[in-house]
Amino acid sequence: QVQLVESGGGSVHSGGSLRLSCATSGYTYSRGWFRQAPGKEREGVTTTDRDGNTIYADSVKGRFTISQDNAQSTIYLQMNNLKPEDTAMYYCVADSVRRWLLPEYRYWGQGTQVTVSS
């Protein structure tokens, strides 16, 4: 059974940085991050897989970076130059197949809130 536990959310001012972490247990092929702002649909932020394929949403390219530790048990999302429109609940996701930024990931974490004030 795959389990995902996020941490690292919080509140920052515009231009600030945050790093999210997601501890994973069980085998997964692809992992990444989605977000959902109030009144909006879930949006794929970035995902990566064990073959090294990584994709970012256009809205975060150049500002967000996904990475993982050597054991591939924890993934991170480094978020720089945060903007108010980045405010959302951020979810760690995982699956045994490649899903790119499609919302059909089988496993979802509980979410961690990121709030960016102007």
How would you describe this structure to a colleague?
By secondary structure, the chain is mainly beta. Helix content is 0%, strand content 52%. The chain contains no helices and eleven strands. It has strands at residues 3-7, 10-13, 18-25, 30-36, 43-49, 54-56, 64-68, 74-79, 88-95, 107-108, 112-117. Strands 2, 4, 5, 6, 9, 10 and 11 form a seven-stranded mixed β-sheet that branches. The termini are far apart.
Tertiary shape: globular
Q: Helix/strand-derived class?
A: mainly beta
Low-confidence stretches at least 5 residues in length (pLDDT < 50)?
none
Structure summary, number of beta strands: 11
Q: Provide mean pLDDT, rounded.
A: 95
**Beta-strand residue percentage:** over 45%
Please write the string of helix (H) and strand (E) elements.
EEEEEEEEEEE
- Gyration radius from CA atoms, angstroms: 13 Å
Major sheet: size, sense and barrel closure? 7 strands, mixed
Any descriptors?
7-stranded mixed β-sheet; 4-stranded antiparallel β-sheet; globular; single chain
Furnish the topology, listing elements before pairings.
Blueprint: E1 3-7, E2 10-13, E3 18-25, E4 30-36, E5 43-49, E6 54-56, E7 64-68, E8 74-79, E9 88-95, E10 107-108, E11 112-117
Parallel strand pairs: 2-11
Antiparallel strand pairs: 1-3, 3-8, 4-5, 4-9, 5-6, 7-8, 9-10, 9-11
